[in-house]
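# step 3/5: fold
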Amino acid sequence: MTLQVYLSGEIHTGWREEIIEGCKGLDVAFSAPVTDHAASDDCGVAILGAEDSKFWHDHKGAKLNAIRTRRGIEQADVVVVRFGEKYKQWNAAFDAGMAAALGKSLIVMHGAEHQHALKEVDAAALAVAETSEQVAQMLRYVLEGVLPG
């Protein structure tokens, strides 16, 4: 049976592609939020019409994106949430909380500089990784019971 993995969080680096590449040959299906920042921000007004207020512009987009995010998390066997170095990703923390509340297997990925700030998120995770390679190795181990090397 195919392992469904939802890749949430930071959108400014190629970590998703690195995990997907590291999982070649495994029976894994990946899904993710829309990672085109402009499309994600503007989807609501592009589809439902312009707004004078930035609040309502963002509100429309957030609600439309939430449909995709909720579906992806609900259908996932494993949710990987990446916290990047550059921005505070409140949406990533929200996704991690949603995954934990739904009882999903949660892998959190971030650098050492975020260990203290994300201690509660890390405590909810089944694993905390620093690299995409570690996540790919975890997924390989889960599916095949094979250690790296």
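# step 4/5: annotate
The radius of gyration is 16 Å.
# step 5/5: archive (pending)
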